[in-house]
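Pair request: fold both.
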Amino acid sequence: MAAPKKGRRPAGAQGRPGRTLVLFLIAMVALAGGMFASGHTTPRLGIDLAGGTSITLKAKAEPGQEKAINKANMDTAVSIMNRRVNGLGVSEAEVQTQGDRNIIVNIPKGTNSEQARQQVGTTAKLYFRPVLTVAAGTPAKPTPSTSPSPSASKGADKNGDKNKPSSTPSVKPSSKSTPQGRAVTDALKADGKPAPKATPSKPGTPPNTPKPGTTPPTPPTGDAAAVAKLQKDFEALDCSTKESRAKAGFGSKATDTIASCSQTGDAKYILGPAEVDGTDVKKAKAVIDQQRGMWIVQMDFTGKGSKKFQSITGKLSKQQQPQNQFAIALDNQVVSAPSVSQTLSGSAEISGSFNQRSATDLANVLSYGALPLSFEEQSVTTVTAALGADQLHAGLIAGAIGLALVILYLVLYYRGLALVAILSLVVSAILTYVIMALLGPAINFALNLPAVCGAIVAIGITADSFIVYFERIRDEIREGRTLRPAVERAWPRARRTIMVSDFVSFLAAAVLFIVTVGKVQGFAFTLGLTTLLDIVVVFLFTKPVMTLLARKNFFASGHPWSGLDPQRLGAKPPLRRSRRTPAAPTDPKEA
């Protein structure tokens, strides 16, 4: 008989199932340890299970631009809102259109959900405008005037008042080669003077609140009647309420000079025509300058935006305070108004009295641009998890009943082999739970009702893989082979069938995930995940366990309760080689 080729494992080879099983169990323990070490021991829940906030936004057209409310602009608004929410790390948020004018935003309860609500509601266009005048936000107080606020100016006396810390944000060139994007201007390096640090303002005080004691700057020039009306509107402007802040500058164009409020309402401004708009910002991010111990915002501009920014900063750097500031205006409300000390282009950083949240908010607004339409909140509804909890309870009961029926079938039909199937199902369930818990903080995966349905459907997929393998083993036993070679010879055929079946299931889940949106993606993601885990469990757990059990006398001897009784399976007699006996001689002489 020809010997098997060297280096090729025979069909009946058993490998090292013990080592494979140990390595698999070590990997499981490591994953579980990572879950407990991370502190995320339960999967994150979607809005239907955890509750949250549902916001209805209605598009509104500016005067003379009624045709701007169209499908293309609404789809663009949905896309930008999605990016804003995802930029804050909010899981399972849904943004979708309703009709031709409304957008529904569902934000689950949890980390950053309130911050995401504020970001989604910020819906108007983003402009960089030069500051002409600044005053306190309410006319009830004496109108304060502005005093020069130090920034990174060339030639500042480090012992004089000009270099005292200020809470007014400043903008400087961004140096990408230094840690955390820290920038020190060339002018300050040349003079040997340290860059001024921003002193955080007291709680409730905005970074741009004007200081009393100096003469107000000259108001804008131009048509006398228009200037007089603008000055009158500016003096009467009360920024203490959200409604008045929203109305200030509404309906104005990018080329208009407007009166505007800060987002906090503590300061009001006269802003010149927009020099740069939000689409000119390529990206922005919030980082902490470790050497200065403060949060800053780094900006990168597009090629076109860089030229515009260079032009405006070149003009502003020659002006006095506050006319050397440019306002970052969103929805005609000033988010920040940093001062400029020199011409900038390409990239820059904004520093001031930021904390982590305010810096992140500003970077998020700059990064994800401006919406093509203006929106107003129609309704804000708090969604409770009571209904979802009831549905989840009913779904878990249905899943438990289905699992019980599967186990009952396995016990009645496969008897002892049911132990292998049950252990494999338990291992698969543990892996699914641990990975879902880890995916929550990793990729913002949130478990919703459709995802739970996908996990329940996966029970049948996993059980089907066991049945395929068990039936292949039984086929080998029916052919007259003993259990140990039957287990190994059945594996290659069962493996091919399992791979093809799981590939089809995974392909269906992938297509469903790509072509759908919202909660259906949760079902597709969970189905695809559990399909991959089915392959892992069958290859690294079920097969090695079956190989080890084949060495046990209870299974190897074909005990009636093992599920592998040859007589019950109708096995053929063992195939044995028989010697050919010579025919008896017929001639007496030959005998």
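--- second member of the pair ---
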Amino acid sequence: MPCVTGLSSTPVAGSRPRDNGLGSRAAVLLVFTSSAAVLVVEIVSLRLLAPYLGLTLETSTMVIGIALTAIAAGSWLGGRIADQVSPRRLIGPSLGVSGAVVALTPVVLRTTAEWAPALLFLIASLTILVPGALLSAVTPIVTKLRLTSLAETGTVVGRLSGVGTIGAIFGTVLTGFVLLSRFPVSGILIGLGILLVAGSALVEWRTRGWLGTPALTLVIVAGGLATMVAPGGCDTETRYHCARVVADPDRGSGRTLVLDGLRHSYVDIDDPTFLKFTYVRAIASVVDTAFPEREPLAAYHVGGGGLTFPRYLATTRPGTRSLVSEIDSGVVRINREQLGLRPQAGIDVRTEDGRLGLRRLDAGSQDLVVGDAFGGVSVPWHLTTVEAMTDVRRVLDEDGLYVANLIDHGGLAFARAEVATLSETFEHVALVGEPTDIGLDPTGTPQGGNLVVLASNRPVDLSATQEALDARKTGWKIATGDALTSWIGDAPLLTDDYAPVDQLLQPYSPQSGQ
């Protein structure tokens, strides 16, 4: 009878397949948990990097690409090594080392971003690659342990592959809908690290025990303590932002809302008519001259932040009804708890996406729409398109006005494209900003920052607007007509089908300000 080596396709009668010390339930648990952990790390990394790189298409693509590379590398190398080394010896170290790296990720990334930003991409890649690859190696290692017969190969591989996919789905849903809305990102990663190291110790407990577990536990403890003093921390981590409220040392009732490291809003709790940021004074100048003094308005605000302008309207135009769509419930809570927002007639804040909020409004129901949802490092592209602006025009009455804050730097490619898009939608468009930024001072070099664009289907008294800008000491001018057309140049129109906003936008630079 010929001798056959390797796995037997038909087990010897009366014998039982080996389990190599790893039962079916334990195998399922390991594969499920490690696959879920990979997705938790991927999604939380996006949130962790957002304050420094922006929540842009490029950032998301980079993180997803690195995570997929880690999964591919871990699966390939894990299977290869499992064929050469006892698989049983690999599970504990894979879980333990990945847990330590995950727990250290918050302090390492934030410290790098503050002290060595040139290395941020490299360090970010490693903090995703290393744990992602180690965790992805668990599935082929466990599969090797569970393969005891060729007759079961399809069943074992298929079952564990399916369990891994279900685990990844679970990790995605859990992180997006539960964890990020209830816990800070540092807490999520440190907690996950603790679970992985604990799992490593449990796996090794029945056998020789892995000597590295106590050391990794100390690493996690050190990482947790370091996170408390690492730069870049937040007073509050909301679902979308790293948020802080900073008191104004020169004005007792003044507060600055900082989101992802950028000054987003300034609120004077006792005097809502005090407008510190130049762009807000510009918006006030436009609105004050576009409508009769103290006339109450029906106003819709896309983006809330510190609700500076809704408060201003409520004070200067009693009876104004401001409806605000703010996507971040955490920011709304900060307004109520730290920025003195009291229940008052005229300001209704809804936690919702601005584009969806627009769709719910009746045609011709608004006198004013204010757009202030754009940031210095990222822009919600779906609020920039012809279709979105058509919806803005729909909800405005025939004398209605749209005014928006734009933020761009460098060549201002995004700002030009957005103004071109508005010019396609409205009959009258004007741009307010520093003369060098809007093409009115050809001797200067555009620096970028905040610009204010206004659009309507009726003429606006721009001479009165300029007087108001001068009275508020903004130093800003107004571009319209041929000057604005020349400034726009060949900028593309932004549509739902084609809106390369992340590629057009020049990110915020520390030298610029509001």
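Observation on the second member. The radius of gyration is 28 Å.
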